[in-house]
Amino acid sequence: MNKVILASRNEGKIREIGEILSKFGMVAVSRDDYGIDKFEVEETGETFEENSYIKAKAILDIAGVPTIADDSGLEVDCIGGRPGVYSARFAGPGCTPYDNNVKLLGLMKHIPEEERTARFVSVITMLFPDGRKLVARGECKGRIAEEMRGEGGFGYDPLFIPEGFSKTFGEMTADEKNSVSHRGRSLARLEEMLGE
Ligand code: IMP
């Protein structure tokens, strides 16, 4: 079987990407299962594309087989597209997702509904040892709620209301979220690109 190593340790992402790869005769292997678990890649890029490339390239250089890495985050228009690539660490080193949501709400206290526009972005980069590269981007537009709502999902989900809905991602089922989410879209795009 043709192995593809995934940079992510997230089991949900590994399963979803694994399902797509299996349609093309490839099998997804986590970096832990491949025995390259003892290093951390520093995400020094300024874009999601750069960071997903950095992660995929670090593993390709070690393993020499095809690799896939993803990078994602939230861009909020009224604060110049922040937190962007800093989404995970917006409220500082060691912060929790709750801290990040509190910080975002604080910055947006006086911003009216029509100016609370935002988007989630997901970029997946797949690299092959012969130099080929696939980059799949998915976006989900929406707006930032005025308070946290819902227990589902992770990260900024309690604050993000996707376009065409009144619920936050945190109030949706996983299937509902996946059908419109940035990651659902970048995965669909990767599948399209593999098919081409
Ligand atoms: P990473 O791409 O796994 O490094 O995720 C970066 C950060 O973006 C996460 O820690 C979250 O703060 C945020 N993020 C990315 N995707 C989502 C999502 O689907 N829901 C909520 N937060 C997200």
How would you characterize the overall build of this protein?
There is one protein chain. The protein is α/β, with parallel strands linked by helices and 196 residues long. It has helices spanning 11-22, 48-63, 97-107, 174-180, 182-195; strands at 2-6, 26-30, 67-76, 117-127, 133-144, 160-162. The protein has one domain (2-195): Maf protein (Alpha-Beta Complex), CATH 3.90.950. The chain is 31% helix and 23% strand. The longest helix has 16 residues, at 48-63. The chain is globular. The two termini are 20 Å apart. The mean pLDDT is 95. The structure holds inosinic acid (IMP).
Main attributes?
alpha/beta, XTP diphosphatase activity, binds inosinic acid, magnesium, six-stranded mixed sheet, hydrolase, ribonucleoside triphosphate phosphatase activity, metal-binding, 196 residues
CATH topology name, in short, is Maf protein
- What's the helical proportion of residues? 25-40%
Shape annotation: globular
| Secondary structural class | alpha/beta
Beta-strand share of residues: 15-25%
Strand count, sense and barrel status of the largest sheet are:
6 strands, mixed
**In terms of per-residue confidence, which ranges show pLDDT below 50 for 5 or more consecutive residues?**
none
Separation of termini? Answer: 20 Å
**Order of SSEs:** EHEHEHEEEHH
Structural domains: how many: 1
Q: Within the largest sheet, what's the order of strands?
A: 2-1-3-4-5-6
- DSSP strand tally: 6
What Rg do the Cα atoms give? 17 Å
Mean pLDDT level: 95
Bound molecules: inosinic acid
CATH architecture level-2 label: Alpha-Beta Complex
**CATH class, please?**
Alpha Beta
Catalytic activity: dITP + H2O = dIMP + diphosphate + H(+); ITP + H2O = IMP + diphosphate + H(+); XTP + H2O = XMP + diphosphate + H(+)
Family: Belongs to the HAM1 NTPase family.
GO cellular component, one term: cytosol
Pfam families: Ham1p_like
